[in-house]
Each structure stands twice: as C-alpha cells, then as structure tokens.
C-alpha cells in the first residue's frame, strides 16, 4: 500500500467531513496564514496533535514535515490489550508518548487521550480503535515519515510484519527486533529474517515452529542475540559468529560443546567480539568436562590464584591489565562472611553499595552454578553473580576480593568476619578498614583478639557479636578499642579502664557486667571532661540491676550559671556547667534557625541551614512520670531526620522555654527566627529579648489592649 | 535657499534662559505617534508602546517626526480593521516597558477575530504577541479528534485540494486566453 493510499484509509477512518458547507464563524482558516506563522502554530502542537494534523491531507502532511522535530526510541510492540507504538522526545526523556490500539470500549469513544504519572515519569496515551494490523503499520510508516525518525525497536507478533519490517529495515536499520513465539514457521522465513534484518543490533527470537530436528549452522548476524528454545542453534553457528552478547535458553549443547566455546573464547582465535555468554541447557552438564583444559589459572604476579574466577579481568593477564586501565570511580566494597553460610562480595557506588553482588552460595542445584541474575527493585539495578559454595570458597573469595580491589582500585570498606582465617588475611591484605563486624566464634583465642586490637585499624566502627569472642577462660581487656564507634554484645570482657582510656565517640555495650559504681565513674569522668573527651553517645545495657542513686551519685546535673534558677531538667552538655557552656560557645556552630511554638505543649524547633533534613525539637510536656524525663526520641520520616528531647513541664513550662531559648541563642549565636504568641506575657518578653524578628504569629485573644499591639515586634 | 535657512532657524530650539539648578538630568518628555486602521479612527500611542512593533519602530527611527508632524501624519494601516488595531494598541500600551509574561489570557477567543489579529500582528512584526497568538491557535485543537481539527482549522481534503487546483488551473487558462484575445484585439 502506498503512502497516499494509507492516508486515504486514515481519512476514511476518521470520517472526513464536509467542512466547506459549515459556517466559517466557528472556524479558523489555518492554511491561509502566512507560512512562517502557520509553522509557528504547528510547533505549538503536541506530538499527538501533530500526528492527527498530518493525517488530514497530503498538503498538511508536507507542512507538518517542515517542523523539524525528531522522535527518539520509536518502538512498536504489543500488550495483552493490543498493539502499541511508543516514543520519546529528545528534550523530555522522562515523558513517554504511547499510541495504544484497543477494542475495549465502543468505537465511537475513540480516539481519546489519557495521561499518567509514575514517579518522575509521565506517559501520555492516545487510544485508537484497533481495526487490524494494517492500521498499525500505516501509522508507524506515517510517524517515521513525518518526524523523519527511524524505528528503534519492533516486536513482531504477526507473520505479516516480517515482510513489512524487511522493507523498512532496507532503508533504515532498526536497533532492536523481537520476534514472538511461533511466528517463524519455515526455514525459508528464518533465513530471510537473518538475511534481511542485518542492521539489527539486538535480536530476540522466541521459540520457532520448525521441525524439531532442524539445525542452523550459519552464524546469526546480530550483535546481541537472545534465543529461547534454542535447540536448533549449533556449535558452528556460535563459533563462526561475531556476536558480542549471546543468551541461549533451553539449549541442547553438551558439556563438550560448552567446553569448546569457552576454549575458543579464551584462546581468542574465534568469538573475538564476545563479551557476555549465557547458555541454559536442558541437559545436565558435567562441570569437569565443561572446564576441561581451560586455562583458568593464567597466573600473574599473584601466583596460585584460585580457579573459580569469572570476571573478564580474570581471564588472562592481558584482560586484567586492560581492565586496570579503565579509570573508574572507586567503589564501596563490602565483604560479608557469615558463619557456615554464604559469602557475599558487595560492590557499588557509595549511594548504592550493593549494586553488584558476587555470592558464594549453595541454595541451588550444583549444575545451576555459576549464574547471573539482575533485578530492578525500586528503580535500582541489582546484579547478582552466584558461584557455588564449597570448602574452597573462603579461599576463593579472598583471592577474588584481592583481584577486585586491584582491578577496581578500591579498598575494602566494610568486612564481616566469621572465620579466624579471615582475620589473619585481612590484617595482611588491608590492615586499615572502615567498618568491621565480627560474628560468633570467629575469635577463639586471646592472641587473635589481641592481634585484631593491635594490628587491624578500624577507622569507624567495630562490632562484636554475642559469642564472637569464644574463649573458654574468662578474660578481660584493659586496653582501649581504637575505633571511633564500638558496639559489643556480651561485653563482659570489656573493663572500665578500657572505656576510660579510649577515644571512642560512640559506645554501645550490651550484656555488660558493669556495676552502678562503674557506670557512675564513667559518667563522672565524662562530665568532668578529663577523660572520654570525644564521647558523644553512651549506651550501656547491664545484666545486673543498677542502683540509680549510686549511678547518679555526685553528678553535678544542676550546676547553674549566670542565669540562676534555671530549671533542673536541662540536659544539653552546655547546660551541665559554666565550663561546659563556655566550651560549647567556643565551637563555631552554623547558626540555627530557632522557632518557638508556645501553644501547648511548648516547643523549641531547631534547624540547621547546611543540613535542612535534620530537625531538633525540645518539647516540654507532662505526658509521663517525672522520673522518665528527660528522654530522647528520634525517627526518620521520608528524607527528614527528626530528633526530640522531651523535658518535664513542671507547670512553669513557658518560663523554662524562655530560659532554654536564651541559652540556645547564646550557645549557638543564633537569633529567634519565628514565634507564635499564645499569651500576652510573651509579647513583653520577646520585645525585651529580641525586638526584631522575622516571623510572628499571634493567636486569638492574645492582644487585649491597643497598648500591647503597638509594643509588639517591629517586623510584624 | 534662504527659505530653507529660515526654516532651519525657526526649527532650532530656543536657548535655555536659565541654567538647571540641580545636577539631575531632566526627564525626557515621552513622544507620541498616531496610527489608524481601515476605519480611519486615529489612535495615539507612545513611542515606548510602539517599540513592540518592529515595523513601526523602524518607521519612527527613520522619520524623526516632531510631535506636530506625527499628529499631522498618522501611520495608515488600511489593511487592518479598526477593532483589531485597537486590540493591538491596547496590548502594546499594557505591555509598555514590561517584561512579557509567558501566557496572555486576554487574547480574543472568537476564531475569526483571532485570525485577523494574527495577520495584523504578523504584519506589524510584534514578536511576543505573535507568539501568544500562535499558542492560542494551537490551543484550539487541544484534545480534539482529527475530524474536529479538520473542521476547526478548515483543512480541505485531498479531493478538495485537487478540485481547487484543477479549478485554479482552469481559471488561469481562461485568463491567459482572455488576455491573448484582448492583446490580439488591441493589435487589430
């Protein structure tokens, strides 16, 4: 069918009207506009409108073609409801345009438009009644012609497509072709497809319905091939091809065939372009035969490297050196050994540290290893490469990690240790690690623990599981743990001197045997400041019952400063003493945004301009028993981190709030930026305390006289 | 020669009698020009407002009219209807010296008026107003089906285009024959 015939068919479809007989009052003779103006009007149409407009006549089609607008990614595909054409515009990558052919509703309701938002993406739909495959083909032809854009991908779900695609591809190669199952029913058709779709880069063929004994011996001429039910693909077809990516499912290749492919790939005389190979067979493979005579241990400077290497860089010295030449951004490498369980090597950028996972596991049948799996959970790609876990996996994983660190030029950032041998290895390979977690039974001797403490530098956090130190003889350590943060379960072995002499910032101890006196000593030293100078957070869970009086004995919690009579329930460090306050003032804090909410329960809201996602609230309430105050609460809501400090409302909360505000303003050198005034006394206070303020909200019945109105803040 | 000199001297500005007291530059009085459309109704428009029109701005720059000369010689736009010119003048006045907003909702909704406005604006070369008008024209077919677009924009079918083309050729042929016959008659 010619283009003209196609147009005539469309005109019939859209019920060409006798427009000349209608009144001109309601109409706009667009074609009488000067050409430049006419084109500017057309440029203001959206894509669907341009398509509709261009279908109206040959003349307007040629006008529409003058608007230089290229489409991207034109795809013709099919869903359960019917065929689809979808495309994008180059300047709006988050917006898809889809023409959807369906017969779900009455013919008269077509055509109609719908738009959907899906996260940051939007999709505009045009629904057209599905009159059959010819309409779809004509529309694709029409769109390609008007927008002078090639088709990027075609899903062939009807045999009649093949001839049409061949015609299109003759003029403009299409990147992707996907042929539905049982569309190809003869050898001639298959030959024709391979011969005529040569420009195609990505080719996927679902099952064909040709004789079961049919075999194809010629190379398949596409860069990437994915073939389902690929029993008909022969070894020579693969070996003589120039494919870069090969995925064969339900193949009948034997272990010997795969071994031949791997050997040819490794020697490089054939399969020179091959980058990725996946073969899923219907027959059981013999691993020994598959890997027979494969030179997997093509050693380099690290001799004796294990055999189960799979990355390209591991194929040979040459491939390794090629890989090392690529300048990648350093990756976050996390090495996770679980006791008796799988080993995971997680790689990824800082924002997505588990994008690639190399796992040694044994939850599948032996012949299913190695396998790849990629998923897209939450719009992030997650790539999984599984190797079979066996008695050599620990050693293999160490070598693999060394190799990855070398090729990717990235250090191990985190490590979870479940075996003693890992400790020795990490101390030797990379004695400085950011985070370390030690699982149960990993440390079986005092000497090992000593080696960790002395030779493994943990820059951020070290954690010990409950039975990580599996030493029968009860022992204790008095030396500090040299990392910023420590978290220890079953921490009976950690003594008070080990804490007091350390520089830790965060300490979390579980199942501790510290007495009330020990805890009191720690708190006193922390308060005095001669020790525990870096400590920011301390949490101790004891197995013994503590006496709160003894714990808090001699702790100077109410050491007032120039503002005498300040409430007792202050908890901030700066409130602990005059000295603490003056120390706090010496720090150059980023000014805070201080807002006061005086409506019950009164609250001080703090924000920091450089970190707008973190908020702090100091709230005075009386919801709990007095003994429970002060207490903290923090939670995350979306990207916001909200931190609460609850103080007891002793019936004088407003005065407490004023004094706390005064204190915070002084320490952080920040003014109040906003206040809601819920009682008249606050007007006097704010005028005296800070007469210029950015935002003020005054509640009902607060101003009871003309005098108080004129006294209030200037910036009202 | 002498009359030219007299004319020149009479047109020369009088010397200021007193020196300005302050250093601040005196405000330049705004100059006005006059335009009329097909209905001959004259509209007084400031030079600032007329800057929107590249056509009129060019004419003003070249002419260098005084106030009296401008009043005596309004710019005639005989091809523009009076009400359309009034719309254009109003728009120029409203947007005098202001940045133009991305949308203008004050444009006429009646299609025949909009058509005349587009032609006038295009002729007067008022770029921003033309942009608004083109958007307005495009908005007419928002969400419409092909047959509705054809009706709104009066798009002829291919058959109608072919018939019109044939008719035009026939008419051109007749006119050519008539001219030939007339020329032959004249020659006789």
Automatic annotation (TrEMBL), chain A:
Quote the InterPro entries the UniProt record gives: F-box_dom (IPR001810), F-box_Sdz-33 (IPR012885)
Residues of the F-box domain:
27-89
Q: Pfam families, per this entry?
A: F-box, FBA_2
Q: What is this protein called?
A: F-box domain-containing protein
**What organism is the protein native to?**
Caenorhabditis nigoni
Q: Which gene encodes it?
A: Cnig_chr_IV.g12272
Automatic annotation (TrEMBL), chain B:
InterPro entries the UniProt entry points to: SKP1 (IPR016897), SKP1-like (IPR001232), SKP1-like_dim_sf (IPR036296), SKP1/BTB/POZ_sf (IPR011333), Skp1_comp_dimer (IPR016072), Skp1_comp_POZ (IPR016073)
- Pathway listed for it? Protein modification; protein ubiquitination
* Entry keywords, A to Z: Ubl conjugation pathway
Pfam families to which the protein is assigned, alphabetical: Skp1 (PF01466), Skp1_POZ (PF03931)
Q: Where does this protein have compositionally biased stretches of type Basic and acidic residues?
A: 165-177
Query: Which Gene Ontology biological process is one annotated for this entry?
Result: protein ubiquitination
Annotated SKP1 component dimerisation domain ranges read 127-170
Gene3D superfamilies named in the record: Potassium Channel Kv1.1, Chain A (3.30.710.10)
Q: Which residues cross the membrane?
A: none
Where on the tree of life does the source sit, at the highest rank? Eukaryota
The SKP1 component POZ domain sits at 38-96
Residue ranges under compositional bias (Low complexity)? 8-25, 178-188
Disordered: annotated segments: 1-25, 160-188
What job does this protein perform? Answer: Probable essential component of SCF (SKP1-CUL1-F-box protein) E3 ubiquitin-protein ligase complexes, which mediate the ubiquitination and subsequent proteasomal degradation of target proteins. Regulates cell proliferation during embryonic and larval development.
Which family is this protein grouped under? Belongs to the SKP1 family.
**PANTHER family according to UniProt:** SKP1
* Name used for this protein in its record: Skp1-related protein
- The species this protein belongs to is Caenorhabditis nigoni
Q: The organism's lineage?
A: Eukaryota, Metazoa, Ecdysozoa, Nematoda, Chromadorea
């Amino acid at each position: 069918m010619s283009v003209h015939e196609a147009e005539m068919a469309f005109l019939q479809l859209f019920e060409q009207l006798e427009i000349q007989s209608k009144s001109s009052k309601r109409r706009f003779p667009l074609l009488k506009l000067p050409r430049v103006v006419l084109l500017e009007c057309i440029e203001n149409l959206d894509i669907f409108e341009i398509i509709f407009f261009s279908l109206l006549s040959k003349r307007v089609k040629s006008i529409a073609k003058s608007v230089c607008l290229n489409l991207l990614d034109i795809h013709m595909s099919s869903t359960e409801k019917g065929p689809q054409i979808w495309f994008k515009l180059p300047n709006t990558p988050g917006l898809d345009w889809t023409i959807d052919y369906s017969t779900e509703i009455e013919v008269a309701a077509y055509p109609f438009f719908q738009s959907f938002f899906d996260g940051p993406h939007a999709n505009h739909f045009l629904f057209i009644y599905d009159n059959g495959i010819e309409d779809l083909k004509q529309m694709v032809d029409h769109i390609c012609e008007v927008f002078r854009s090639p088709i990027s991908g075609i899903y062939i779900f009807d045999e009649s497509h093949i001839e049409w695609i061949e015609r299109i591809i003759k003029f403009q190669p299409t990147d992707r072709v996907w042929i539905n199952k049982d569309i190809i029913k003869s050898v001639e058709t298959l030959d024709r497809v391979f011969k005529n779709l040569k420009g195609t880069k990505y080719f996927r063929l679902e099952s064909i319905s040709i004789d079961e004994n049919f075999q194809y011996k010629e190379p398949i001429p596409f860069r990437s091939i994915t073939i389902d039910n690929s029993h008909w693909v022969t070894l020579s077809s693969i070996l003589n091809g120039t494919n870069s990516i090969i995925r064969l499912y339900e193949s009948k290749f034997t272990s010997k065939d795969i071994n031949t492919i791997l050997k040819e790939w490794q020697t490089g005389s054939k399969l020179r372009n091959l980058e990725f190979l996946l073969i899923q067979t219907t027959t059981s493979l013999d691993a020994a035969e598959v890997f027979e005579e494969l030179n997997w241990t093509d050693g380099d400077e690290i001799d004796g490297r294990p055999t189960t290497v799979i990355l390209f860089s591991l194929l040979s010295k040459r491939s390794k050196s090629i890989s090392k030449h690529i300048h990648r951004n350093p990756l976050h490498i996390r090495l996770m050994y679980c006791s008796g369980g799988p080993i995971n090597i997680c790689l990824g950028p800082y924002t997505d540290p588990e994008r690639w996972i190399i796992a040694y596991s044994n939850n599948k049948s032996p012949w299913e290893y190695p396998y790849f799996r990629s998923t897209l959970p939450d719009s992030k790609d997650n790539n999984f490469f599984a190797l079979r876990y066996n008695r050599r996996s620990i050693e293999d994983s160490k070598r693999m990690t060394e190799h990855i660190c070398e090729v990717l030029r990235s250090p191990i950032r985190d490590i979870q240790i479940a075996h003693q041998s890992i400790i020795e290895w990490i101390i030797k390979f990379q004695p400085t690690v950011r985070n370390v977690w030690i699982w149960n039974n990993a440390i079986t001797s005092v000497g090992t623990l000593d080696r960790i403490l002395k030779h493994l530098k943990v820059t951020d956090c070290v954690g010990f599981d409950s039975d990580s130190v599996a030493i029968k003889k009860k022992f204790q350590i008095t030396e500090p743990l040299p990392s910023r943060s420590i978290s220890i379960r079953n921490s009976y072995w950690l003594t008070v001197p080990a804490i007091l002499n350390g520089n830790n910032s965060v300490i979390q101890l579980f199942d501790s045997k510290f007495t009330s006196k020990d805890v009191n000593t720690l708190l006193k030293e922390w308060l005095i400041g001669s020790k525990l100078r870096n400590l920011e957070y301390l949490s101790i869970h004891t197995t013994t019952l503590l006496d709160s009086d003894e714990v808090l004995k001699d702790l100077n919690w109410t050491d007032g400063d120039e503002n005498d009579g300040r409430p007792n329930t202050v908890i901030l460090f700066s409130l602990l003493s005059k000295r603490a306050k003056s120390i706090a003032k010496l720090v150059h804090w980023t000014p805070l945004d201080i807002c006061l909410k005086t409506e019950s329960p009164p609250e001080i809201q703090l924000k920091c301009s450089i970190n707008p996602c973190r908020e702090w609230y100091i709230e005075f309430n009386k919801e709990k028993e007095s003994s429970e105050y002060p207490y903290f609460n923090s939670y995350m809501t979306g990207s916001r981190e909200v931190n609460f400090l609850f103080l007891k409302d002793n019936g004088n909360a407003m005065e407490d709030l004023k004094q706390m505000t005064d204190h915070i303003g002084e320490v952080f050198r920040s003014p109040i930026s906003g206040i809601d005034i819920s009682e008249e006394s606050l007007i006097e206070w704010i005028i005296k305390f800070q007469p210029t303020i950015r935002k003020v909200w005054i509640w009902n019945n607060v101003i009871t006289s003309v005098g108080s109105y004129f006294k209030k803040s200037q910036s009202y | 020669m002498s009359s030219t000199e007299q004319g020149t001297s009479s047109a020369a500005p009088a010397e200021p009698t007193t020196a300005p007291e302050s250093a601040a530059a005196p405000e330049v009085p705004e100059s006005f020009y006059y335009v009329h459309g097909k209905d001959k109704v004259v509209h007084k428009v400031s030079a600032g407002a007329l800057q929107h029109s590249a056509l009129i701005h060019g004419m003003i720059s070249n002419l260098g009219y005084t106030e009296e000369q401008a009043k005596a010689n309004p710019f005639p736009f005989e091809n523009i209807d009076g009400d359309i010119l009034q719309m254009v003048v109003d728009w120029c006045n409203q947007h005098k010296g202001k940045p133009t907003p991305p949308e203008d909702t004050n444009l006429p909704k009646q299609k025949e008026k909009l058509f005349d406005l587009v032609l006038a604006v295009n002729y007067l070369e008022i770029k921003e107003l033309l942009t608004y008008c083109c958007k307005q024209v495009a908005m007419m077919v928002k969400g419409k089906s092909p047959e509705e677009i054809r009706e709104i924009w009066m798009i002829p079918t291919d058959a109608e285009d072919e018939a019109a083309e044939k008719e035009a050729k026939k008419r051109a042929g007749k006119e050519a024959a008539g001219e030939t016959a007339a020329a032959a008659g004249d020659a006789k």
